[in-house]
Design brief:
Blueprint: H1 2-28, H2 46-57, H3 65-79, H4 86-103, H5 107-118, H6 139-143, H7 154-171, H8 176-184, H9 191-202
Helix pairs in contact: 1-9, 2-7, 3-4, 4-5, 4-7, 5-9, 7-8, 8-9
């Protein structure tokens, strides 16, 4: 019993260290947050609307071929249980890396968010109506003047989702727990944030 409790304590300490390392890495990037709808009766933030419009209208993210090969090979193995087709897997990873980097987010954090939000199902729809990989609310397409765009298209979904995620992290001055809670529409609770941080530290951490 004592050995089992000691093992559990060690795992808890390791999890806390990994989460702290993830937060420290994000802080070094300068602060980075879904697409939750604004509070009832509240208009969407005009600053976020402008950011989303610029993001969707913006016209590779790897520094060199070696870095691309290492990252894509590593992450493709981890993504295989969710996306069996190897070509689809690599294309999705390229898109995630590109859109995360454009928004100033670690791609690994975006992968963790996608796992919790949709388990990599590009056609996922939540009970609240959020759509796609990062579960973006459709009202944002109207807000930014792109009602014809398709949130089930991975590129569109990732660009909007990453822009929103980055906005919330900046709004919370680098507090990843609060930013993730805003993304999920659960500010004040940390259940969602802890789930994202858990998969970030155990599956999507960078080697």
């Amino acid at each position: 019993m004592a050995a089992r409790e000691a093992g559990r304590g060690a795992r808890r300490r390791l999890s806390r260290r990994l989460a702290a390392a993830a937060l420290a890495a994000l802080a070094l990037l300068g602060g980075v947050v879904a697409a939750a709808a604004p509070s009832q009766g509240q208009a969407p933030d005009p600053r976020l609307r402008a950011l989303l419009r610029a993001a969707i209208e913006a016209s590779d993210s790897f520094r060199d071929r070696f870095e691309a090969e290492v990252w894509l090979t590593d992450m493709a193995q981890r993504l295989a249980p969710f996306v069996p087709d190897p070509h689809e897997r690599l294309e999705l990873l390229r898109l995630v890396h590109r859109e995360a980097t454009r928004a100033g987010l670690p791609p690994e954090l975006v992968l963790a968010v996608i796992e919790i939000e949709s388990r990599f199902d590009r056609f996922a729809i939540s009970e609240a109506g959020a759509q796609g990989l990062m579960q973006v609310m459709p009202f944002w397409l109207e807000e930014i003047g792109h009602p014809e765009d398709n949130l089930f298209d991975p590129r569109t979904n990732l660009r909007l989702g990453c822009t929103i995620l980055r906005y919330y992290l900046d709004l919370e001055r680098g507090d990843l727990v609060r930013a993730l809670a805003r993304y999920n529409g659960s500010l004040g609770r940390r259940t969602y944030s802890d789930r994202v941080l858990r998969v970030l530290s155990t599956r999507w951490f960078r080697q």
